[in-house]
Amino acid sequence: MATVAAAPWFKARLIPELKNRQSLLYCRNGHRRYRQSLCFRRRSFSIYAAAGDEGAVRVRFAPSPTGNLHVGGARTALFNYLYARSKGGKFILRIEDTDLERSTRESEEAVLRDLSWLGLAWDEGLGIGGNYGPYRQSERNALYKEFAEKLLQSGHVYRCFCSNEELEKMKEMAKLKQLPPVYTGRWASATEEEVLEELAKGTPYTYRFRVPKEGSLKIDDLIRGEVSWNFDTLGDFVIMRSNGQPVYNFCVTVDDATMAISHVIRAEEHLPNTLRQALIYKALGFPMPHFAHVSLILAPDRSKLSKRHGATSVGQFRDMGYLPQAMVNYLALLGWGDGTENEFFSLEQLVEKFTIERVNKSGAIFDSTKLRWMNGQHLRSLPSEELNQIIGERWKDANIVTESQGVFIQDAVLLLKDGIDLIPDSEKALSSLLSYPLYETLASTEGKLILEDGVSEVAKSLLAAYDSGELCGALAEGQPGWKNWVKKFGKLLKRKGKSLFMPLRVLLTGKLHGPDIGATTVLLYKAGTSGSVAPQAGFVTFDERFKILREVQWESFCSNVPLSAGAVTH
Q: Where this protein primarily resides, as one coarse class (predicted)?
C-alpha cells in the first residue's frame, strides 16, 4: 500500500464501537474463508476536516474519457495547474475510466490532446508515468479490491445480497413516506448463518459502507468556506458492485489517498460526494486532503452550459480558430480575478497571480461574444512575423493567394487584422477586399445618400484619372503617391473629407465601409500587379472595376429603376 505523504490530517470523534471488530478467519473443509463481521452497535459521531500544516502540494485532474473535454473540465484542469505551479507543486493527470461502456481510448487521446494544446503540461500521470501509477482507474482494480477487503475485515463494509427488485421497493416505500431514498440496512445486521447461506447459493452481492445513523461531517472548503452534512441524509452506500467493479466514490478516494493528493480542486457538482469520501478516508485511516469546489460554468440564461448553447468543448473552439492562449485567459476569468481591472494574462502571468482564495463561489457566465473579442486581442498581440505566417498559410490553404509569405501578405495582414477576431475570419476579410459589389451598394439604402451627393460626377473624373495613367502611376509609388494624388483630386473637385473619401471608397472598392481607403486602394493595385492573388480567388482587378464603372447607368439609379447586377463580382 502506498503511504500518504504531506497531506493534511483531519480530526474525528471516532468510528462506531464494534463488538467483533475484525472478521474471524476459520477453516471449513480445508478452505480459509472470511467471516462477515457481526453485531455492530452504532453510535453517533461527527467528523471535522481541517487543514493541517502545508506540505508538498500535489493536485490532480481526473477526467472521464467518455466524450470531448468540456470547457468546464478545462477550467478545472487550469485551476489545478495554476495552483500547483504557483505553489511549486505537482500537477497529476489521472484517467477515471471505470465507466467501461462509455469510456474510449479515442476520447482519452482527445482529452490529452486538448490539455496539451492549452499548454497545461502535467508532471506525472498518463503518458509520463510516476511513482504512484498506474494512472488509469481500469488498471487499478486489484488495489480497489485490496482496500475493499480491508474494510470488510474491519467491519466498515458488509455484503449486501439485496436484489434490484428489493432495492426498487425500498425506494418506492421511501417515496410514499416522503423520505429520502436511502438504503434501509437490510443486510447491515445479518447473522453469520444468513450470510453463509447466500454465499453458498452463489447469490450476487455488493459491498456496502456502514454509515453512522447520527452525526455530521464538516469541512473547510477553500472556496466555499464551512460546509456540513448530517449522516442521516445518507444510507449505507455501495463501494463495490456485484460484478466486482468498484464505484466512483470508492475509486476516487483510494486513488487520491494512495497518490498523496494534497488538494482536491474540482467542480461543485462533486460537493455531495465529499460526505461518502470522508467516511472512506477515515475508515481506511487516510488523512483528508484540502477540498476546493469550483462553481459551474453557466449559459447566458443561467442554466448549466450544454451543447444546446453552441460550442462547449475545447476541441470545437480549437477547430473554430481560437488560440490556446485566449482560451486559457478567458477560462481563468470565469470565476477568478486578480483584484484589478486587468483582463489579459499570459499563462505565466496567471501562475504568478493565481490564488485559490480569489476564486468566486458563484456561477460564472460563459459569454461567447467576449471570448471572441478576447481572442481577437490575443491574435493581434502576436509578433507580426507569427501573425503573418498564421494568416498567410490560412489564405494559401483557402486558395486565395499563391504564396503564404511576402510583401503582399504583410501589407494585407496589417490592413485587415483589426477586423479579424478568429483566424478563419481572415478568409472572409481578404475575399471581401478583393470583391467589387458596386451595384448592390448603389442599390442599398445607404447607397442612395452617395448618389444624392453627386457620386456620378466623381466617377467621371476618376475614370479620366485612370485612363490617363495618373492614378496607377500614383499607386505605383505606394502610400506617398496616393496621398499626393488624392489631395490634387480633391482640389480639382472642390471636395474634402467625407465628401471626397466616401464616393472614392464606393467607386474604388464597391463598398461603403472598410479599412483605410488609401491603404486599401494601394493594396488592390498591388494585388493586380504582384501575381500574389490566386486565379480562383474572385479578385476583381482595376481594369474590370473601371469597366464596370463605365457601364453604370446613373440616371437609372437616381430614378429608382432596378438594374441587372451582372458582372459585379468575378
A: mitochondrion
